[in-house]
Design a protein that fits this description.
By secondary structure, the chain is an alpha+beta fold. It contains 4 helices and 20 strands.
Amino acid sequence: MKRNTSNISQQWKHAFQRMKLVAKIASILTSRPACTVALVAAWCVGPITALRAGVLSTVPMQGGMVMPMIAYHADHGHLHVTMPSEIPQLTPLLVSHPGDSFDPADPWFDDLDPSRRGLSFSRRYGFVMDTMTDPLPDGTIIHIRKISGPPELGFYRYSGSTPKLWEPIFGTAGSPDWLAWNGMMFHPAVTAPPGTNGYEATFEAYLANATTGEILPGTSTGPFILRWTNVPDGRPSLDIRRVIQISWSASSQGWTLEQTDDLGSPSWQPVEVEPLVWNGQWTVLIEPQSQHKFYRLRPIQPAQ
């Protein structure tokens, strides 16, 4: 049986050519500047697929966990909280995930998506039980309560698993300012309008009767403060105002605009706003005031 030596020869020829090409590329990569290396590498691997915007199915935490640790001290009969030193940052999606968006079907879409409110957010704070805690007294449960905080700071119980959850808590949208906590790790989602101003809210944790919810006196941690920094999303804000527009023909020269508060005994004073020509009209824009104003045009007397 004769072997097809011509095919084998062609295969070896192609293999040898590929080996020479690889050797040449290796030589370039080790002897050329970085820019040449980049060009050769790009030629070898072919065109790079552009990054595509994604639709997120969950709410990012926006960084590592920052954990206030709560413990019960049986010898003192109250709860204690150990606060972390790190301060989380509230970040809008436009900054943390440029080009990405949320699914309109998800319950947080209206609050967080850049096409809607586009709020800054973070889930980094997470309450957790200290491993050194004593067992809670029988029939008790821990309540966490928000004592104070700015109204624009929103709090939500979040779940990215089905059924997805975005439930207002800690006084947000009229919810109770407290919640019962089962001691499992709990990361509330926190939102605020993007900007450079920081935020803080004051909380406490205490024991309550697990059946009636009655607060057990003397068991509180005392007030502790959660703080956040914040960043703007880079979008310009619109400044929309109501103004009074007073206009007269630009062909009318030698007139000045005056104002007074009372027509009964008027004291006419010049309006201290320089008129500008717009659409063939002398135009003055004036901020509305609480009191009535009356206006007139008076001819300017020629200098003597």
